């Protein structure tokens, strides 16, 4: 799932851009270099943490193993609360990947001194500071939503788009995409605004004032990751529950 996210987010899916950016031209593909670099930094952190936590598993977890087991338990509880005991297990990896990637991406914008790394063009920032990344997350959530409904009902899942009348087909399709897309714009807007506020305060009052704002930014960044993952799970539950109930009624 992380590989698809990186490809989606690096290909400049959205045309909204602020300032100059670093692009790599590979054949006919135009890759967003800044997003690619910072996304793989976050992915690398997740891979290193996962390998370190599972390299020497202990009965009584300590250190990084304890931290990763706590994160896994938190993600399981989050997914179970949204999807229910019967349906949640297959979706733990997807929801967990969403949450951890967004969480670390958001925090990297506040904790990693990206501005100290100079590029030929543009500058580095948190992956979620770019609209292409958040739109890629929204598209993945939409695909998961469709897959959840399709795997539950087969081709009968798509009947809902022409009921009660086929005239509503475009509106029904648009509605399924706009829900996760609204999440992507909210995430992008909040992370971009947070980084801009901190940058301005550092320029104006470089010593003490930015510290409380940065602490607040860390808190809101964590909340944004939680909101995105929770609502993504809720949308998947909506696809499963709605069509699952219809299937019971037919029997």
Automatic annotation (TrEMBL):
Membership in a protein family: Belongs to the ATPase A chain family.
Chain ranges passing through the membrane: 31-53, 91-111, 131-150, 187-209, 215-236
Bilayer topology annotation: Multi-pass membrane protein
One GO cellular component, as annotated: plasma membrane-derived thylakoid membrane
InterPro entries per record: ATP_syn_F0_a_bact/chloroplast (IPR045082), ATP_synth_F0_asu (IPR000568), ATP_synth_F0_asu_AS (IPR023011), F0_ATP_A_sf (IPR035908)
Keyword annotations of the record: ATP synthesis, CF(0), Hydrogen ion transport, Ion transport, Membrane, Thylakoid, Transmembrane, Transmembrane helix, Transport
Protein name from the UniProt record: ATP synthase subunit a
